[in-house]
Design goal:
The termini are far apart. It is built from three helices and two strands, in the order ααββα. The chain has a two-stranded antiparallel ribbon. It has two domains: about 5-60; about 85-115, no CATH class. Helix content is about 45%, strand content about 5%. The chain is mainly alpha-helical. The mean pLDDT is about 85. The protein is elongated. Strand 1 (about 85) and strand 2 (about 90) form a beta hairpin. The longest helix has about 35 residues, at about 5-40. It has helices at about 5-40, 55-60, 100-105; strands at about 85, 90.
Length: about 120
C-alpha cells in the first residue's frame, strides 16, 4: 500500500467536492419541480409550511388579540414621569434607576434635583 501525502488527499477532497456540487445542482432542479408540483396540487401556502413570522406561523393558532392582564381588574398602562434631566432622559421611578441617574448621583447631584 502506497502512503498518501496531505497534498494528495487534499486534491482528492477537492475533486470529490466538485463532483458533489455538480450532483447537487442536478438533483436540485428535480427537487424544486416536485415541491412546486406538491404546492400547486395541495394549495399550500408559506404559512402552511412554517415560513411565516413567529410562533403563530409555526402553529395553526392565531395570536391573541389582547395580552392578558397580570391581575384581574388591574390596568396596565403608562406611568407618569417623576424624574427628568436636562438632556431629556426620564424615569418613572419604577424598577432599577437608569444609568444616567445613577451616574449623576455618583457625581454629587441630588436625586430631588431631577424631580418633575
Amino acid at each position: 500500500m502506497v502512503a498518501k501525502t496531505y497534498t494528495d488527499i487534499a486534491k482528492q477532497i477537492k475533486a470529490l467536492q466538485a463532483k458533489a456540487d455538480a450532483l447537487r445542482a442536478q438533483e436540485r432542479t428535480g427537487v424544486i419541480t416536485k415541491i412546486k408540483g406538491a404546492i400547486e396540487a395541495y394549495g399550500l401556502t408559506a404559512h402552511d409550511l412554517g415560513f411565516g413570522r413567529g410562533r403563530a406561523a409555526k402553529e395553526a393558532v392565531p395570536p391573541p388579540t389582547k395580552p392578558p392582564s397580570k391581575a384581574k381588574g388591574r390596568k396596565l398602562g403608562k406611568v407618569a414621569v417623576k424624574y427628568r434631566d436636562k438632556s431629556g432622559n426620564t424615569w418613572a421611578g419604577r424598577g432599577l434607576q437608569p444609568r444616567w441617574l445613577r451616574e449623576a448621583i455618583a457625581a454629587g447631584a441630588k436625586m430631588e434635583s431631577f424631580r418633575v
